[in-house]
Structure formats: C-alpha cells, structure tokens
Specification:
The complex is a heterodimer of chains A (about 120) and B (about 120). Chain A is mainly beta and about 120 residues long. Chain A contains one helix and twelve strands. In chain A, strands 2, 5, 6, 10, 11 and 12 form a six-stranded mixed beta sheet that branches. In chain A, strands 3-9-8-7 form a four-stranded antiparallel beta sheet, with no helix packed on it. In chain A, β8 and β9 form a beta hairpin. By secondary structure, chain B is mainly β. In chain B, the strands form two sheets. In chain B, strands 2, 4, 5, 8, 9 and 10 form a six-stranded mixed beta sheet that branches. A four-stranded antiparallel beta sheet of chain B has the order 1-3-7-6, with no helix packed on it. Classes of the chains: A mainly beta (about 120), B mainly beta (about 120).
C-alpha cells in the first residue's frame, strides 16, 4: 500500500493564483516525520519543510504555507500568489523511524505544478 | 558550503556491463542515502549508511546492486550486469546525524543511468 498519496498528478494555474497541493499519508508509527521537496526542471530535489508528528502547528514561510492535520492524515502545501519559478514537481515524503528502524523516506508520486505567465 | 555532489551526471552503458556511481556527501554529514527515481517506480529508497555501522540494504532491488562507503565519506553504488530496467536517475542524499528527530536529508543532482 502506498504510504504517501499525492492524488493530483498535474496542476496548472495562472500566475498570481493560489494553489494547494494535497498530501495524505498512512503510518502506524506513533512518531513520524513529514517532508515536502521541490524538484525543478534542473532535477535536483530541494528541501522545503520538515514537520514532526507531534507538532500540528501550521507553518508559513513567505508565500509558502503548510497545513498539517493528524485527524485526516494530511499535510497539504499552499503556494500563495504563484510565480512562474514555482513550476516544478513537488514531492511529499514520510519517515517512520520507529517502525522501519531507519530514516529512509517514503515518497509520494509527486504533483507537477505548472504556473502559466 | 558545498552540497552533495554526484558523478557522473550521465552514464550510458550497454546491457550486461557493470557501472559505478559516486556520491560525495556534505562535509560533516554522517548519514548517506541512495534513492532511485524512475518513471515506473517513482522515488524509492535503496540503501542507507550511518557512520561506521552496517548499512541498511533493505531497499536494494536485487543482488546485482551493492554499495560501499569508504572512510565514512564518499560512497559508490555499483550495479553489476546492468539491465534495461535499471535505467533511472540515481539520487544520493546526506544528513548530519541520521537521527530522525533532528535530521533533514539533502539531495545531490543525481546520475542519470541509461542502459541500452
């Protein structure tokens, strides 16, 4: 079973629109960690955010914000006033170290965001 | 400081040949990970090194895959008798301590492997 589900395969928005990328995860671990990475056309995965399972505070960083809800096992990512430079594939990932005994990441299949100028 | 570096950036090989992919982690990082990104399988974990401990090989897809980490720094991923299904981008990541409670993995640019 997929541990991380990103149901949106591709999204297109017009520049300056807001966009939310969905992420739903599944784990039996009591302590786990969630991540978002950006993969621009250059190919390198760029770290965006890391969230512990016991910290449900939402976070804002500039135009980026994240909504973590344990009740629905979701960790959604919103870009406000999107820009062309936001065009990339975005990956949500999970680590469950108590179950796996390791810190390897389980990735979703990614959401390709295209921002149209 | 310098990020994770990988070489070569591209590798084209013939089916049945062996290949070696190299990863230089961020200086001071004790944990190193290899992942593979392919169209069919997405991003999948391969192997994990933490300091001088025995590596976690649970993600290696077959015994044709192996990896070493010399001196706790540079790592080499070796694929023997390559098959066409090995074609993928191989990504390396490193993190400071390997502790889940504090760590973030930083990725290199990847090596694109094409097996003809």
């Amino acid at each position: 079973a997929q541990k991380v589900t990103q149901a949106q395969t591709e999204i297109s928005v017009v520049e300056k629109e807001d966009v939310t990328l969905d992420c739903v995860y599944e784990t039996r671990d009591t302590t786990y960690y969630l991540f978002w990475y950006k993969q621009p056309p250059s190919g390198e995965l760029v770290f965006l955010i890391r969230r512990n399972s016991f910290d449900e505070q939402n976070e804002i960083s500039g135009r980026y914000s994240w909504n973590f809800q344990k009740s629905t096992s979701s960790f959604n990512f919103t870009i406000t006033a999107s820009q062309v430079v936001d065009s990339a594939v975005y990956f949500c990932a999970l680590s469950e170290p108590l179950i796996t005994g390791a810190n390897n990441l389980f990735f979703g299949t990614g959401t390709r965001l295209t921002v149209i100028p | 400081g310098a990020g994770v570096s990988q070489s070569p950036s591209n590798k084209v090989t013939e089916k049945g040949k062996d290949v070696e992919l190299r990863c230089d982690p961020i200086s001071g990082h004790t944990a190193l990970y290899w992942y593979r990104q392919s169209l069919g399988q997405g991003l999948e974990f391969l192997i994990y090194f933490q300091g001088n401990s025995a590596p976690d090989k649970s993600g290696l897809p077959s015994d044709r895959f192996s990896a070493e980490r010399t001196g706790g720094s540079v790592s080499t991923l070796t694929i023997q008798r390559t098959q066409q299904e090995d074609s993928a981008v191989y990504l390396c990541a490193s993190s400071f301590s390997g502790r889940a409670s504090t760590d973030t993995q930083y990725f290199g640019p990847g090596t694109r492997l094409t097996v003809l």
